Amino acid sequence: MNETLYVQLLNLAAGAFLLAAVLVLWRRELAVIIRVFAVQGAALAGIVAVLAGHEHSAELWAVAAGVLLLRATVLPVLLLRALAGAGTAQRETAPLVNVSASLLAAAVLTMIAYAVSKPLVDLAPSPATRAIPIGLTVVLIGLFVLVTRRHALSQLVGFLLMDNGITAIGFLTTSGVPLVVELGVSLDVLFAVLVLQILTTRMRATFGDTDLDELRELHD
Amino acid sequence: MIGAVLQVIMVVGGSPLLLGLMRQVRAKLEGRAGAGIWQPWRDLRKLFGKEAITPRRTSEVFRYAPLVLFATALMVAVVVPFVTTRSAVGPVADLFAVVALLALGTVTLALAGLDTGTAFGGMGASRAVTILALVEPTLLVAILALSVRVGSTNLATIVSSTLDDPGRVISPVTLLAAVALLVVIIAEAGRLPVDNPATHLELTMVHEAMILEYAGTDLALVELASAMRLTVFLGLLATLFVPWGIATAATPAALAVGVAAFAVKVGLLGVLLAAGEVFLAKVRLFRVPELLAGSFLLALLAVSASFFLA
């Protein structure tokens, strides 16, 4: 692969990856959030595929296909099914931090990620490692979504955003995680989502809602 | 020099036509016949023939505001490299100067709205300033993202460097900055979904509320200046992100190509904007900061990406 084309494609995929995380923070409808999450999974697969094309590694191509299958199709489908079971609560109506403030918080988180990862980038400057701040930003935004949203499903998306970010950092720093490790992590994430999906369904069956703040207070 | 004159002629003469074109596209898509693209010019001719009436107990601010608004729009039309990069006032064609001029126009109009002392004027002014306070940083940061890799905030330099290296247009920096700039331009030019230019309903007006007290020549000047601002904003977007066709030499052929390219680009952007507006409803005023905070974040990401991906 041509070097400038490689850099451009990598930057484009990383840009789409970051943009998807911002959109998760911006939108209120849970169905839209889940679709955006699927797009982010595709962007992550794109990053891995570009790295695979650059390294000419068949193993990385297989990992890219696996990432695409799991994060752009299986997980979103599972989330959408959980959403269909969630009944009337289809929107994140009142997050703890309102949307404008959380968008500004995301701007601050970007700056923090950039400052924190600078020494890491300086260790081995290359087009791939220069995109590390983006992966770190997505981790931080995921954490932010996890803490500030009330709906169980958006918290789940926050958790998955963090995982996407960590995976991206892994691939960008090492240019290739061993297949076994990646398989183990993916399986872990899949089981986490399956368990949480069942938990959400149970919560809804018992309390009639999936607003987690309701569970902190005592009821009759 | 000829380039600057051409730019002024294009912006002053073409902006009512752009407005007419956008209204015509909207009318056709909504199944109406429409008034034709010359209607804004006919309105302006009618208004220029009438006497300007100023309300009692208004001060000089109210009387000079249309002139200042028109002058700032005219100045931006001279400064920004719409048709040619060989601007008549080269070093002044600075990003900060352009944004300051555009903001000066808005602030003057808001002051004039306050000066009338009516409820609508004050309401419109307060809304306009709220939007302006959120638009201005985004505008600056989005254009700054483009200037980082050039190393200069001069608009002509930014445009010529993009012309030299067309591959830059498809980078995350440019795309993020383009989206951010589009959102703030829609907000600042008072188009849907931030402000509805066709309404006179008191609860929704922003721009119209400030100019309710104007009549005759003054109103014509304000209308012409707002049309010019829309043209200038769309032209800025076209110049920064699709600079092809802008003349780099002062030959007549290059200038002709520049004029044609400018007309086509801005016309196309206007048609797209008008077609998009058919499908949009106005956003609640309290949701507007959310939209603008989002576009500010995109602009900031564009700047930081131009540092850590370059």
Structural summary, described in words:
The complex is a heterodimer of chains A (220) and B (310). Chain A is an all-alpha fold and 220 residues long. Chain A has one domain. Chain A has helices at residues 3-26, 30-55, 58-84, 99-123, 132-148, 152-174, 179-207. In chain A, helix 4 packs antiparallel against helix 5 and helix 5 (132-148) runs antiparallel to helix 6 (152-174). The model of chain A has no long low-confidence stretch (mean pLDDT 83). Chain B is built from eleven helices and no strands. The radius of gyration of chain B is 19 Å and the shape is globular. Chain B has helices at 2-29, 39-48, 60-79, 95-115, 119-148, 155-164, 172-188, 207-210, 216-241, 252-278, 288-308. The mean pLDDT of chain B is 86. Chain B starts with a helix and ends with a helix. Chain B is 69% helix and 0% strand. The longest helix of chain B has 30 residues, at 119-148. Chain B has one domain. By secondary structure, chain B is mainly α. In chain B, helix 1 (2-29) packs across helix 9 (216-241), helix 3 packs antiparallel against helix 4 (95-115) and helix 5 (119-148) runs parallel beside helix 11. The chains are: A mainly alpha (220), B mainly alpha (310). The A-B interface holds A 4, 8, 11-12, 14-16, 18-19, 22, 26, 98-101, 103-104, 106-107, 110-111, 114, 121, 130-131, 133-134 and B 167, 170-172, 175-176, 289-290, 293-294, 296-298, 300-301, 304-305, 307-309.
